[in-house]
Design a protein that fits this description.
By secondary structure, this protein is of the alpha/beta class. The protein is built from five helices and eleven strands, in the order βββββαββαββαβαβα.
Amino acid sequence: MTRPQPRELRIVNKNHITPHMLRITLGGDQIHTLPKDQEGGYVKLIFPQVSDKPILRTYTIRHQRDCEIDIDFVLHEDGGPASTWARHAQIGEAILVGGPGPVKPISGAADWQFFVGDMTALPAISVNLANLPDTAKGAAILEVLSQEDVLPLVHPSGIELHWVINPHPGESTKILLERVKALPWPKGSVSAWVACEFSAMKALRSFFKIEKQLLREHLYISSYWKKGNSEDQHKVVKRTDNEAES
């Protein structure tokens, strides 16, 4: 099947929702080429070229409305091309947007749902939480850069939110793992949705797959970035790791 061609969208709004999270709203004449019901899925943002090779970065659709979508960017002091573009882009500016890729919801077949992620995963986790049934039970362990980055999230009352403040993401592989281990393990079946930095992901994968022996169909786990690596470098590391795990 032929992949859909990237469409040109335009910035219609910019809003700092926290000190380190910038929301850019995209719309324009070609927004109708994006299928409906894509919140939590991903798109490929194709940034203005500085060389012969285009710069592509993967981002989650946080909200989708009839005529626009919201994309949330984590802002770092040493930001890469995506966050740098987001900081300086102006309303009315155009960008090519490929995709969308599939939505990855947590398995609802278990008695309990666990979410674990850093700020790069917060948009996808936020969508997941909002889509859970009111009867859902479990916990979400969410790492942010500062207390000011804690967001009010829509979630069932049976899902406890645990915020982890870490101003230096990626420097420790065990901050999220230790917070997960500090929680009492529930009785019954558990599903988990995990996305974060590569090394932290590996530590969490070992915990959920080996120590807790979660069923394959109850575990979604992915690295969204790797400290010290560009997205292209991370893709190579991720592919090698996935092949080793298969």
